[in-house]
Write a structure and sequence with these properties.
7-stranded mixed sheet; Rossmann fold; globular; alpha/beta
Length: 192
């Protein structure tokens, strides 16, 4: 199986520039009305170029950004030096460093990340995410649909699968929103 971290390390500059071409206000507009009241603590899993983490920090949130690619973290620091973001090297499904930190979160964002988690690891990953939420917290997941890209370890995803994980973990699907393109949809998961 391909290692997505190695791929992102090798392509960090190109990918970061590509991510930064899209404004966070546009990419994350689907969840604006569902963001917690600031100040709140947000975990951005797979934070990539730091675009969304910096955007959230500018809205007065405390942001912990998880990114397993050292080169992507370095690019994010160069692109967003003013952002008050705490970076952690960690990865799904374990999120061991985040779990050991003892922190819990009002919102956990996974923007175009879920497709990198193999289907067999998703129940464990979802359980870890649910356990990191504060009572009443939310998980925002965007799902990338499109062709598999083995070199990037991109796996098929579906909203139906996320809905099943939500039910199996006693959570409530607060919203499922189709983005402007047919290749991305969002799911907002809230605990009961």
């Amino acid at each position: 199986m391909a290692d997505p971290v190695a791929w992102y390390d090798a392509n960090a500059e190109t990918i970061s520039a590509c991510y930064e071409e899209a404004a966070a206000d546009d990419v994350q507009s689907w969840m604006l009305d569902l963001l917690p009241t600031a100040p709140a603590t947000i975990l951005d899993v797979g934070a990539g170029s730091g675009r969304d983490a910096a955007w959230l920090a500018a809205k007065s949130y405390e942001v912990i950004a998880v990114e397993p690619s050292a080169n992507m973290r370095a690019a994010a620091a160069r692109l967003h030096p003013e952002a008050k973001v705490h970076w952690i090297s960690d990865t799904l499904p374990a999120l061991g460093a985040v779990t050991r930190s003892g922190l819990s979160f009002d919102l956990i964002l996974l923007s175009a990340v879920w497709m990198h988690v193999p289907a067999g690891d998703r129940p464990r990953a979802f359980r870890k995410l649910i356990n990191l939420l504060k009572p009443g917290g939310l998980i925002a997941i965007t799902l990338r649909h499109g062709p598999a890209e083995p070199e990037r370890a991109i796996h098929p995803v579906s909203l139906a699968e996320v809905e099943a994980l939500v039910r199996n973990h006693g959570a409530l699907l607060s919203a499922a929103v189709k983005q402007k393109t047919n290749s991305v949809e969002g799911a907002f998961v809230g605990l009961r």
